[in-house]
Amino acid sequence: MKTGSSLNGKTGILYRSTKTVIVFMKKIWMFILLISVMKAATAQDSIYIFSYFKDNGQDGLHLAYSEDGYTWKELDNGRSYLQPTAGKDKLMRDPCVIRGADGLFHMVWTVSWNEKGIGYASSPDLLHWSAQQDIPVMEHEPGALNCWAPEITYDARSKTYMIYWATTIPGRFPAGDTSGDDKYNHRLYYVTTKNFKQFTPARVLYDQGFNVIDATIIPDNNRYVMFLKDETRKPPQKNIRFAVSNKLTRGYGKPSAPITGQYWAEGPTVLKRGKKWIVYFDKYTQGSYGAIKSEDNGKTWTDISDKLTMPKGLRHGTVVAITREEYSKLKD
């Protein structure tokens, strides 16, 4: 009896365990299916927003929208959504907007051609913004000439935001000193933050021996891809390239060959959907915008500028996805 009871007990336990595993696996598959449906719905419900500036950035933030990434139209007849108040010159150039892990939109921008800080503000909806801050990221460097084109990238691993920009400090980097425009010989710098209140000291992010500006970094699975402008004037480069690292804040090597054509380009921003990439950039000497596309995760690039429609006067900015509900509030 004891033996039989013991065997029956083990059989019962085994049956219950197997049943529990089956139920658990069904829940996992249902969860995976739900996530897949949500992702598909998110992709279908997304509207892309392009944050940008006009002229010299004196009237602040402008927004354009697109459903396909090719045809962009200005929102609300091109009005400014935020007037700049940060910095001495009170400009809002190169506005970079991302959606943070906290659900807020975080924006940084260039406040001046020659100041040592960058602008920052946050918003729940791109309509109502926090008080603007002037973050003095290079105030500790007496010789620093500028802080240009700041951007933000979120690092999910460390749950921190990295803010990065281009600065010239005359004499700091001999390589490239004679190849830039006038006195400029930029390198990329960065700080990190978890709350946009406390920041780490500024450090060099990228120095590969040439004049570089306008970086934007995109997480891509287990790597980070930095698109940048080679600002070398002699011999002329003025093109877009990219570098790759498995760490957000370091390890970016020599850049790729130019991925843009025989024209001067700057201000890259990226729309990434799976293995498909669109890189937008300002053909600033031609007064127009351009774009290139890759469908093999950046191995080859095709110019699609002739398929692109952009609002008149659009200058350097970034692309962020929002919901249709958020979009409807922007255009009301």
TrEMBL record:
InterPro entries: BT_3657-like_N (IPR055133), GH43_arabinanases (IPR050727), Glyco_hydro_beta-prop_sf (IPR023296). Residues 40-134 form the Arabinosidase BT-3657-like N-terminal domain. One of its GO terms (molecular function) is hydrolase activity. Keywords: Hydrolase. Signal peptide: none annotated. This is Glycosyl hydrolase family 32. It comes from Chitinophaga polysaccharea.
